[in-house]
Amino acid sequence: MQNDPNREPNFMRLFVAHERELRAFARTLLPTWEAVEDVLQESSVVMWRKLDQLKDESGFLPWAKVIVRFEALRARRRVARDRLVLSEETIALLADEALEMPNDILQRERDALTRCLQKLSEEHRKLVLMPYVEAGGLLQVAKRTQRSANSLYKLLGRMREKLKLCVERELDLAGEGGTT
User: Looking at the structure, do residues 42 and 112 belong to the same domain, yes or no?
Assistant: First the structure.
């Protein structure tokens, strides 16, 4: 992509087209959505700076995942003193595993999860998604939903198990088999 007059629009097109996969990949490596956002932002800057290293557009996603991986490791080092942070070795193992999984498998699993989420009541769907889309931990969610933390923890556990079984059934029905 060196000396390409359409460099900026091409980069933006590729980044936007693969942002969902990059976000999902980053989430496998990082503990919070805030960290994912920070790492994606830093990664996009690095990608832009190193765009000349990209040989062709078909190699964008693997190339971008390598950059996201290194930025996730860099972010992990910044917060290494936090006892709840995964070790660098664990992040590297997760990254390797995620890189090896074909995108079509991830997409089928996402689609099955979407179908299963739609089968939940609206209240349960919101409850299951709340920790992922809103800031704050379980205690804040419990306060917002006027539940005890213990009852919320148990309910979320049951809902997640129900979703897991549903996704496995959906994948089996489609003849795709689960990866879990």
Answer: no
> Using one digit for the tens of pLDDT, what is the confidence trace for 149-165?
788 778 888 888 899 99
The pTM for the full model equals: 0.50
User: In this structure, what token pair is assigned to residue 132?
Assistant: 């992922």
* Domain end point (choices 46, 76, 100): 100
Are 23 and 40 a contacting pair, CB within 8 Å? yes
Handedness of CA 39, 40, 44, 47 (dihedral sign): positive
The H or E element containing residue 126 is helix 122-133
SS3 letters for 14-82?
Answer: HHHHHHHHHHHHHHHHCCCHHHHHHHHHHHHHHHHHCHHHCCCHHHHHHHHHHHHHHHHHHHHHHCCCC
Domains contained in the chain, number? 2
Degrees, nearest 5: CA angle 116-165-127: 50
